[in-house]
Amino acid sequence: MGVGNSNSISNYSFKSKRTAMCAPTLFKVIAVCMLVVTLPILVFLHVSSSIPFCPSAVSAGFYSSDEVTVVNEFSSWTGDLREAKFSWNHLWFDSTRPPPEILKIAVFSRKWPVGSAPGGMERHALTLHSFLAARGHDVHVFTSAPPVKTTTADKTSSQMTVHYIDAAPNQWKPELAWPLFKAENKRSSFDAVHSESVALPYRLAAELSNLAVSWHGIALEAFESSIFQDLARPSGERVSPAFVKDFNEKPMKIINEIRFFHSYSHHVAISDSSGDMLRDVYQIPHRRVHVILNGVDDAQFTPDPSLGRSFRSSIGVPENASLVLGVAGRLVKDKGHPLLHQAFSRITGNHADVYLVVAGSGPWAKRYANLGTRVVALGALPPSRLKAFYNGIDVFLNPTLRPQGLDLTLMEAMQCGTPVAATRFPSIKGSVVVDDEFGHMFAPNVDSLVNVLEKVVKEGRRRLSERGRKCRVYAKKMFAAGKMALAYERMFLCIKNERYCQYPTII
Fold first, then answer.
1. 396 with 418: CB under 8 angstroms?
2. What are the two backbone dihedrals, phi and then psi, of residue 259, each rounded to the nearest 5 degrees?
3. Based on the domain organization, do 282 and 357 belong to the same domain?
4. What is the pLDDT of residues 393-402, one digit of tens each?
5. Which end of the chain is more exposed for a tag (fewer CB within 10 A), N or C?
6. Are 407 and 248 in contact (CB under 8 A)?
7. Which secondary structure element, helix H or strand E, spans residue 325, and what is its range?
């Protein structure tokens, strides 16, 4: 478990090598196709019943008031954290006590947010490590050059140092980051190393016994996404070249990924279903797989009805609107916008006073604008306006066709007390919408989404508000940034010294 020895790798080549392969036999083709198609189905069916200690939030009695009830269904759990197959977010970590040790932590991230709205992976890294730095840990970030020149030195806080590689902006080259890491590690050894997905290539990762990698999406989940996107293709539309390319290339990528994932010492799954997939399909020993759900700033995302009303007024939603739906994020195909565009078009004829607010940019922005005055297309919103957006809508829609990862937008909406309607994928069903009271789920097709939208409209604002209050209770308990960061802190401590792996005792 201790800190791994960092040896020179000057003879290592970062260029990928193409493997010469014989033409596959028909049997091999059929076998690979069966592997890729059946594994997602088996995992999908498996995860719905595999989460061990997760009773219904409602039946557990959490909702005695609108405030967070201090109840922990895992309060009696004790043992080695490496044996826990449930999300560490369920456990209690004392934020009022300082860390038992100050850690030196290295972070590898392809990008680091500077002067622009970050993507989900970058937001996760920034939120997590800013919190750890505020806890006093010495955090060093190794990342690509920023898109704009920074006005300060490489310091973003008194305890966080950002090391930018010497390359074009946002162009990640790990071969340039590695010497920077080696030099800093030589000055004083890192206690723990954290990679956001494959920012640190597996050939380098094999050198580090103190490395943990957070997976924001793996090849098997990405292939599932390709399948769902093609199934959403309108009748008569030709199969996209991208899908054909994926179907031809992804099977071997999945197999290779299963092989090289063992090079990483510790794996952090950001959803319960991803944890199951890493253990059951990728065959990672369960003591090396830790489930820690993403967290969002629960001080920033809070219920504020007055702010919501002002927001609706400012964007032109009339006061007599019976219901306001909302969607946010990149307006691209894999986020499910072909489904939502068709579904909303179908319900508008029966519900003249229902509005849709679209926050985001991308190819589908113009298509939404063509739906008429009951669609308000805002473009990309700065982070400072997201709270107003979530408070200004009655239900947050997430029609994603991507089973991988775990969208922060769902957590942000729930923190603001807004119920959700989301695609019924294992990651969402098993980690976010764990109770029917939190909203609605639908299969990734237009008919299923239309059915849910009709239910939402029929329920009305008052019923949705009740759901939203319950969302807030659960989200504040499970998706707070502090809870996520304290769980990572404990994992890094455990990596440094096994005595910290015992829960709840800290020696």
1. yes
2. -70, -50
3. no
4. 999 999 999 8
5. C
6. no
7. strand 323-328
